[in-house]
Amino acid sequence: LGVGLRQSKCILDHDPGESALVRFGQRVKGTDEGNGWISVQFKPIRANLNHVLMDGMKHVFPASPDHNERFRECLWKAIQVECLCAANGCTSPDINRLTAWLEEGVSFSDQQAWLGLNDGKDKITPLEALGRSAGDPMLFLDSVLLLVRFGDFPGAGGSTTQEVIEVALQRTPTEEHARLLWVNAWKAAAANRLTWTLANADLFFDGILEQALDVALYANLEGRDVEEARRRTAVNQANDRAIATPI
Prior knowledge:
Helix content is 60%, strand content 2%. The chain has twelve helices and two strands.
């Protein structure tokens, strides 16, 4: 797949029409209400995602200034769909396809952790889908490890009922080595989220940094990002108190 995609950048024509990837992507809906947290209407296309991905990439004009971002968005959407379908069906994602798409995404960015460039734009990230699935964690372990390595984390908004990372850390595999891998992966996801939030908090709602810090502390993280988040959170709280205090 990777070679084909790199070659395709030179030969694809611009098509202003709506791509299949966009059409299918618009069918993804998520809520925080019980078992209805996700509705996936495109299960039949899961086996044909490579074709749908290529169809989506045809609609990106290679000479446009934002073509790298748009190529990444196409890849991200394919990864999201694969993980949504796997999570909804309690089956393992196709690790070979995920690996190919994730490695391809590096060529359209300046870093390996490129998934973090897209997270926060959509609420249901690939990791969020897997973390909130009722399926056995062992079904998702390899995919979770892979996604975290490429910078993924549950979306900036999280769940209004309980944070996805907290849910995942409470549902660990029973086998000891697998449990250690699972816990470390979700700790890394919490670190990814905190790093991203420190860089982007000003673009989102008040309290987003406090939420990311709470999750990081729940995951027992330490280090420079945690200390910076504590400092900024303390400043924000002091400012809020000053505003609330009548003169």
